[in-house]
Design a protein that fits this description.
Elements lengths: L2 E10 L2 E11 L4 E5 L6 H8 L7 E6 L2 E2 L5 H4 L3 E4 L11 H11 L5 H14 L15 H14 L4 E5 L7 H16 L4 E4 L3 H7 L2 E6 L2 E6 L10 H10 L2
Parallel strand pairs: 3-8, 3-9, 6-7, 7-8
Antiparallel strand pairs: 1-2, 1-4, 4-5, 9-10
Length: about 240
């Protein structure tokens, strides 16, 4: 996966959220973005996934110019998983997956159904395929959301704190699902507060603070931080 960020700036209501962010990565397969609340982690993820456009700067993901590419074209290439599952409440788990495949990716109903059932089976959710989101646990609904993103065979998946609304038991369910993505060689960028999980699933870490990338490198930087701020953050979180 290639990520190239050039002088990214972004603000909300006059308040600077991201400040002069630049980064060039060539070979990362799974990137974890960590840092304290308000650091700008989710904002950066939303910009890379084109949910929003930056106030200034350039973003390239796998050589795609994210800012200049039409949203509808970019969304065919990437998947996004929100903090809450974001499933259509009136549709079953199965239909939540097949709808996007049919309407956006031009799969026939038969093709979409087969693909969705295959994935639900792989991720041990097929018995819940005819349930609506309200009938699923929070962890099950979030896992269906992950499968929905995976079903389009994206070049990259973006996951924004997918366990933040879940209790510890349901969190483990979702983290196991993301580990399966890693085993499938899916490339992804995840914002997470689970440092132990980040060590296990990522091969590259971005540590953010006050709208800037303070330190970045392979996951080994969590064991041997170069900056005092990352060292203090790791010690605080791992207490």
């Amino acid at each position: 996966m290639k990520i190239n960020l050039n002088n990214i700036n972004h603000s909300y209501h006059g308040k600077a959220i991201l400040q002069d962010i630049s980064l060039k990565l060539e070979h990362a397969e799974a990137i974890a973005i960590i840092g304290p609340s308000g650091a700008g982690k989710s904002t950066l993820l939303r910009l890379m996934s084109k949910i929003e456009n930056p106030d200034a700067g350039e973003i390239f993901v796998n050589d795609i110019d994210v800012v200049l590419t039409e949203a509808k074209d970019y969304y065919k290439k990437v998947g996004f998983v929100f903090q809450s599952h974001n499933l259509f409440p009136h549709l079953t788990a199965l239909r939540n997956i097949t709808l996007v495949l049919e309407k956006v990716h031009n799969k026939t109903p038969q093709e979409a159904t087969k693909l969705a059932i295959d994935l639900l089976t792989q991720f041990e959710l097929v018995e819940h395929m005819n349930k609506k989101p309200i009938q699923l646990s929070g962890g099950q609904a979030q896992r269906v959301s992950i499968i929905r993103s995976l079903a389009i065979n994206p070049e990259v998946m973006f996951l924004d704190e997918p366990t933040s609304a879940l209790d510890p038991i349901l969190t483990r369910e979702v983290l196991r699902t993301i580990l399966k993505l890693r085993e499938k060689n899916m490339r992804f960028v995840i914002v997470t507060h689970e440092l132990g999980f980040a060590k296990k699933v990522a091969d590259y870490i971005l540590y953010m603070e006050d709208g800037r990338i303070v330190e970045h490198g392979p996951t080994s930087i969590l064991e041997n931080p170069k900056t005092e701020s990352l060292k203090e953050f790791v010690e605080f979180v791992m207490e």
